[in-house]
Specification:
Layout lengths: L5 H27 L18 H6 L8 H29 L7 H10 L5 H14 L9 H23 L4 H8 L4 H30 L2 H4 L8 H8 L7 H42 L1
Length: 279
């Protein structure tokens, strides 16, 4: 076996340092959340226990942890569903050129480069001037869509750019209506991409802080609640909350990956059954 070049070890070391920089803070918070009852916010640890996780489920003197979690979860589902539906519709619409399509595309992408806090301020002012309540389910929902929709649309543009239209033509030749073609041909083929868009929509919404800061009204979402707790909570219960929310995010990612895996298995099985039928 030939010895590896020195560049390999240099690049491997840089990659390891990058991973440590990327995941080190999360691991540190996770470790500190398992301190004993007398634990503080820094090392060294003072014992190990699940005390602060139990404390999360007791009546909190400050904050509304579980209420804010429920709001973030519901808002994430709203944003996810809307992002998937609008992204698919936008992807289908942009398959053909139409007057103003180029300008519309760049207007959509522009929201990604505008500072998030400015969008939050603008959406909040717009709702206030229109006499509408500034609320997480209204203005907060709209502000977060300016963040998730461009990502969803970019994914759908890439998917439909590589989509083989012969599948649709074959379905129409067999007498399928446009709706049947969309439902039974197009959507099953792009299903893995839809799962990716859904994952983007939910996780980006669930973690979003800046675009929700001035649009959530008097009821905080979970990121805003955690930020508020950093100013008045001086115990590892804050770390325990961070560990649980990180675990929840990983569970949601795993859930979507399982759906994608099941979808791929079903597609492969259907293709195998179709091949056997031809034989």
């Amino acid at each position: 076996m030939e010895p590896r070049p020195r560049s390999f070890y240099v690049l491997a070391t840089l990659f390891a340092l990058f991973l440590l920089f990327l995941y080190g803070p999360t691991l540190t918070i996770g470790i500190l959340s398992f301190q004993g009852p007398g634990g503080g916010l820094t090392f060294p640890m003072r014992g190990t226990s699940l005390y602060w996780f139990r404390d999360l489920f007791e009546q909190q003197a400050v904050g509304d942890i579980w209420g804010s979690f429920g709001r973030s979860f519901v808002l994430g589902l709203m944003v996810m569903i809307t992002t998937v539906v609008v992204s698919v519709m936008g992807g289908l619409a942009f398959r053909k050129r139409f007057p103003g399509s180029g300008v519309l595309f760049y207007l959509i992408i522009t929201s990604l480069v505008i500072p998030s806090i400015l969008i939050s301020l603008g959406v909040g002012l717009m709702f206030s001037q229109a006499g509408l309540p500034v609320h997480w389910s209204g203005s907060g929902f709209g502000a977060q869509l300016t963040w998730t929709l461009p990502f969803g649309l970019l994914i759908m543009f890439a998917v439909f750019n590589r989509f083989d239209k012969s599948y649709e033509e074959a379905a129409r030749d067999l007498g399928a209506t446009p709706w049947q073609t969309l439902r039974h041909v197009v959507l099953p083929i792009i299903a893995p991409s839809l799962i990716g868009v859904a994952l983007f929509g939910f996780t980006l919404s669930y973690d979003e802080f800046a675009r929700t800061l001035l649009t959530a009204g008097s009821y905080n979402t979970l990121p805003l609640e955690i930020f508020g707790m950093t100013t008045n909570v001086t115990t590892p219960v804050l770390y325990a909350l961070g560990t649980l929310t990180t675990g929840f995010s990983l569970i949601m990612i795993g859930f979507f990956l399982c759906i994608a895996w099941i979808s791929a298995r079903r597609k492969a099985r259907a293709g195998s059954d179709a091949g056997k039928g031809l034989v």
